[in-house]
Amino acid sequence: MSEVVAPGDVIGKAEEYLPGENVDVDKDGNLIAQVMGVVIRDNKEHVISIKPLKGNGLLKINDIVYGKVVAIPNDKVVIVRILGVDDNGNKVLLKDDITGIVPPSQLLNGKSSNASDLVGIGDVVRARVISRGPPYTLTLKDAQLGVVHARCPRCGHELVWRGGEILRCPNCGATVRRKVSLSEYWV
Ligand SMILES: [Zn+2]
Fold first, then answer.
1. Number of CB atoms found within 10 A of residue 110's CB
2. Which residues of the chain carry a pLDDT beneath 70?
3. What domains are there in the chain, each with its CATH number?
């Protein structure tokens, strides 16, 4: 069982362990976690350290993330709840909700368009982090970025990719246009 701690958590006493990576000692001799992560106890060397988790504040510029579109204010800006991050090809779920924002300039290369022509509320998108955060600024501009999962706006069934920018509902036959990620689509 891995023990996950948050910054500021007391994880032990200085007489039990020496502070290792990402651990500090306060004036009362408590060992304090400095980052969110998993506690590593080296009982041979009596060192306690924390392996950081990707979580709040720990996404890096150029990280590929997956998130759900939660709002499209003024049909210009796309607000994303970031759910996971790509870690060397593995999708790692984040512990906490992190907000990402796709500004109009990061929606599509060279074309001005309404955001709702490219993504829909509830869609899962693959995006790239381009600022420190939270909130993080995301881009959807590259061909490999965009919608990876969407549901039918009419009946709620999962949409399937028909090639290009077209998704189709196998249940009711509706088609919708999306900026689909060329690197993956989940149905
Ligand atoms: Zn449908």
1. 5
2. 1-2, 54-57, 109-112
3. 4-52 (2.40.50.100), 64-177 (2.40.50.140)
